[in-house]
Amino acid sequence: MMLTTVIAQIIRRNTGDEAMDWLEQKAALIRTEERSLQLNLAFAHTPRYTEKKNLQLEPQEVQQLADQLPGVAADGWTADRLARVWLLMQVPAENKDAYLKKIDGLFAAAEMNEQVALYSALPVFSFPEAWLHRCTEGIRSNIGTVLEAIMYHNPYPAGHLPEPAWNQLVLKAFFTEKDVTRIIGFEERANHQLSETLKDYVQERTAAHRTIHPEIHKLIEQ
After folding, report:
1. pLDDT by residue (tens digit) across 127-155?
2. Taken in order 181, 64, 99, 93, is the CA torsion positive or negative?
3. N or C, where is the chain less crowded by C-beta within 10 Å?
């Protein structure tokens, strides 16, 4: 079963036929329109139709998502977040410049919840290398939900970020007390520079009599 079909079924079961029918109508327009108007409108208006309630996932849906997108977990997501990701998957990618312009335009104007959906969609965007700057930019955010959308169960950072940006993500996770066990590639992408930086961080925390996250020691070279 195609990923878009799996996601559509989850959305329909959680929001009802009316909401999914609206999304499908908007998707048809998005797939045929050269400009960004329909995408921008649908992306902004989605919560009116799907609401912002938490998704309820069946075990087989969790497995289907994991099979299609290894590492991704939508537990804890809201219906509008998943619906927005589904809409983003409808944007035609045949014309690279047009595709990048449409998605980048959403990033430029996104409010907090829209940012969460956009960063959640990083693993399904076409032209993955084109989104490195957006991912790196997101890591600098001070909005907790935005950081979690990038860090938690998102395979894009581990798969595409260069080492300096990856190290910045891990350090930001520790500094903001995120659950680092939910970061894909957390141990696999350990490296010497990150180890040295974390050694200094541990020394500073120790000197200040502050607690040390136990997961830090997994990344420090002995």
Report:
1. 999 999 999 999 999 999 999 999 999 99
2. positive
3. C
Give the type of residue at 213.
H
Burial of 220 (0-12, 13-18, 19+ CB in 10 A): middle
Q: Is the pTM here over 0.90, yes or no?
A: yes
Helix axes 17-32, 3-15, angle to 10 degrees: 140
The whole-angstrom separation of Cα 214 and Cα 190 is 15
Q: Which DSSP string corresponds to 187-220?
A: TTT--HHHHHHHHHHHHHHHHTT----GGGGGSS
Report CA-CA distances (Å) from 31 to 11, 28, 36, 86: 19, 5, 10, 12
